[in-house]
């Protein structure tokens, strides 16, 4: 979530000791309606040294709900964790709140003060707060608006303040804690989205992660919703508005320790659980956005909070760095689209206008499915036909001329047998020129291949499905091996001879300009053969390499071959040796 960077929460070292001082929490609970609190206070044994434990052990305790049974422990943990967050030198504290609140409100009613503009159109969950708590919530939000004028849009802020109020001594303590989260300035760290641009980038990032990690749910949503992104825009509301209090507070437990990445995990787990609970037939004619909201609100009927968290932490996401790079790319795309920091929320992201879409290979509905697979920052823009064999002829040189200067692109192929397949290609075809006389592979892990007819299926980079195979850390002065000279009938990387209808398999090029997200230079890969995305020469083009070629086309764009390859772990995308009936390349307007 939160801004443009992944969250790195500062945790005390093993040498630090946080004693639990129960006396400091005696006043906690004045804002709570105890009749609505699901769990009564339980007297749990609280070791005095619990907060001196290593961060790894603290995370484990939070995931298991260790302090869920003790209000005193949870209140103290929250306060201590937030006090350890590094933030701007001049950050409003409890004393500032008391001064500003007395000046703002005096003896007047809170109702006479409008809520900050950054909450326009935002909901305000109150969970188990009593009337005093609801008044305190509004006062704190008004003071936040007064003391943080740079906040222009923050729909999640009311929920976080409301949750903190359940475990705060008074308004001033709650204000100080939320202020520290707002003012966090640790490198690559931001807890709370504070602009429309940051919020939308977070939603796009979640959409990208759902596309990769919840393919079944994503496919269901794409096939039943006119606007997939509109559904994903609610992901934070699922966590901090729709979830029952007992679930939301457990999410907050782990969020304070583990940051943004854990929110993505839990929202993805909710999406996976939703897919298990519904069928396509049940959703026909249904408002899926409202149906998802109702599902989350009644989540206790489907899965316990412990099981939900267990499943969330079983999802293998990429590193915080990779997620941050994706967030940055999404922010950049939004800014190119004209979205600004001070913009109010509006409906700017519309699905591709299929009324005006026309292709000789795929239908509008089929293109909508393909578009739903594409990273969010590119699907902001409508498709643009760059090349078609029916209009431009069967010339590889013409193919390159029409496609150069555009990235990414979508390649569509229709065979003479009526089968349709293709590829999403993340990099400009001009990259092929950078390897000189030899051919090299280029592209990023966002590339994928797919089939449309007879079956609709996508095959992504193998490390997306199995991220444990690659360690996502920066390399140190590591270079790809020098490319070997290409010859029409050279052997493949695994030593097997190639048949006459296959192109040369080039080794990866020495240097290339890669897109920032999922660039292979960010990963320590066990094998180069599983990161061969795209390659082009005067002989033809290759998509996917290693042990075979997912797609290869000759210089006349007339004959092709498809087979399993290590990069995408795909089956043949159509008949192994095929003749091209039509070929199209689509780019993105203004991308």
From TrEMBL:
It is found in: Cytoplasmic vesicle membrane; Endomembrane system; Synapse. InterPro entries: Rab-GAP-TBC_dom, Rab-GAP_TBC_sf, TLDc_dom. Residues 360-589 form the TLDc domain. Residues 68-259 form the Rab-GAP TBC domain. Interacts with ARF6. Residues 494-509 have a biased composition (Polar residues). Residues 473-510 are annotated as: Disordered. It is a peripheral membrane protein. Transmembrane segments: none annotated. Keywords: Cytoplasmic vesicle, Membrane, Synapse. The lineage of its organism: Eukaryota, Metazoa, Chordata, Craniata, Vertebrata. Its main location: membrane. May act as a GTPase-activating protein for Rab family protein(s). Involved in neuronal projections development, probably through a negative modulation of ARF6 function. Involved in the regulation of synaptic vesicle trafficking. The keyword Membrane applies. It holds the Pfam family TLD. GO terms for cellular component: cytoplasmic vesicle membrane; endomembrane system; synapse. This is TBC1 domain family member 24. The keyword Membrane applies. It comes from Trogon melanurus.
